[in-house]
């Protein structure tokens, strides 16, 4: 009698672990696929050349339907990101070690102070916007 | 490139995870308002209707930027892409530089600027100068009225020359050249280098400048 009880407990234990593992893997797969699709949607959005049609419910922007708050129908594709506020800033000599000559940069000069944001480092859904300060002004470096 | 100050408050922007019309929606940490990335306009929330001030950021390559601004600093992170190099513009018809001044919006497509790299234009009451460096695919927009006088620019080798005062100018810095005049700096206006398709969607009332056809007059027989 005691032996049987232990067996039952063991089987249940194994089943529980198997189920938990399967559920976890399935969950991870769903999250990964979701994130991949989200990231892809973002990248397509960047170029404005997505193959997929925009959401049906909202009429596309046009001359008759210019961008106004009432036409604003955003779709969630990724979770909300944390803002980037602490971007490492280096001198031009140090930057020259990290940036190639032919890489595109977004540059800005404010009150005599210049700064370059290499687009290859300011790109993708996880770092599309840098909250920065330059020449005494708070700026959002984004493209 | 935007100023983060709105109504005296400094906002902190993040990626909201939302897309609208296939374009990024930003969110600010202070009020959770949603902002269109390309319009710079608050579409929903406490700041609805507010417009972020666009700053005259410019797109060029690192070599050119360093040459123009030797004392520049740079924001350095690990690369998240390798797309943005000189050959990014191998299909120039996908890009343009656009400018929004009040209610008026105009764009200068890159293929037109390749053909015609110095444009004296006018948008409403504003007098604009658009210059394009085809070698570096760098476009800049300036106000071409200097000390109350409207200037008309022409290409002069690698520099510009204005018809009215015959001064020479550097097209990429907007500074006057030469010893015989004090240096004057043209005011740079905020232009946005954008994908043509995205610009068309978000600025449906935009006008587009076109390079005049350089129809060479037929020689008579």
Total beta-strand segments of chain A: 6
* Radius of gyration of CA atoms of chain B, rounded to a whole number: 19 Å
* Helix coverage percent of chain B: under 10%
Outline of chain B, from the CA principal axes? globular
Spatial separation of the terminal alpha carbons of chain B: 56 Å
SSE order of chain B? EEEEEEEEHEEEHEEEEEEEEEEEHE
| Spatial ordering of strands, largest sheet of chain A | 3-4
Task: Compute the average pLDDT of chain B.
Answer: 92
Strand content of chain A: 15-25%
The major beta sheet of chain A can be summarized as: 2 strands, antiparallel
Order of helices and strands of chain A: HEEHEEEE
Please tally the helical runs of chain A, counting DSSP H or I stretches of 4 or more residues.
2
Range of helix content of chain A: 25-40%
CATH architecture of the largest domain in chain B: 3-layer Sandwich
**Percent of residues in beta strands of chain B:** 35-45%
**Class derived from helix and strand content of chain B:** mainly beta
- Roughly what is the average pLDDT of chain A, rounded to an integer? 84
SSE-based structural type of chain A: alpha+beta
CATH class of the largest domain in chain B: Mainly Beta
């Amino acid at each position: 009698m005691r032996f049987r009880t232990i067996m039952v407990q063991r089987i249940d234990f194994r089943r529980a672990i198997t189920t938990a593992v399967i559920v976890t893997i399935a969950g991870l797969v769903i999250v990964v696929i979701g994130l991949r699709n989200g990231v892809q949607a973002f990248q397509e959005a960047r170029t404005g050349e997505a193959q997929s049609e925009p959401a049906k419910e909202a009429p596309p922007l046009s001359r008759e339907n210019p961008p106004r708050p009432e036409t604003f129908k955003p779709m969630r594709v990724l979770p909300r990101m944390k803002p980037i506020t602490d971007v490492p800033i280096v001198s031009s000599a140090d930057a020259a070690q990290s940036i190639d000559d032919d890489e595109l940069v977004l540059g800005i000069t404010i009150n005599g102070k210049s700064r370059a944001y290499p687009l290859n480092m300011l790109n993708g859904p996880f770092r599309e916007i840098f909250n920065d300060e330059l020449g005494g002004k708070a700026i959002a470096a984004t493209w | 490139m935007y100023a983060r100050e709105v109504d005296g408050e400094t906002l902190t922007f993040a990626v909201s995870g939302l897309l609208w019309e296939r374009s990024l929606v930003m969110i600010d940490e202070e009020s959770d308002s949603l902002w269109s990335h390309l319009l710079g306009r608050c579409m929903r929330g406490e700041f609805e209707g507010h417009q972020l001030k666009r700053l005259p950021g410019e797109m060029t390559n690192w070599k050119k930027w360093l040459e123009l601004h030797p004392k520049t600093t740079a924001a350095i992170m690990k690369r998240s892409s390798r797309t943005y190099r000189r050959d990014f513009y191998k299909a120039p018809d996908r890009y343009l530089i656009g400018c929004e001044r009040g209610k008026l919006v105009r764009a200068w497509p890159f293929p037109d600027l390749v053909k015609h790299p110095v444009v004296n234009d006018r948008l409403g009451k504003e007098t604009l100068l658009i210059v394009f460096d085809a070698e570096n695919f760098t476009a800049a927009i300036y106000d071409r009225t200097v000390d109350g006088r409207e200037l008309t620019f022409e290409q002069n080798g690698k520099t510009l020359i204005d018809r009215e005062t015959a001064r020479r100018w550097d097209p990429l810095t907007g500074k006057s050249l030469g010893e015989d005049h004090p240096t004057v700096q043209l005011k740079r206006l905020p232009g946005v280098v954008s994908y043509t398709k995205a610009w068309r969607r978000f600025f449906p009332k935009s006008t587009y400048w076109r390079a005049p056809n350089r129809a060479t007059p037929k020689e008579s027989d």
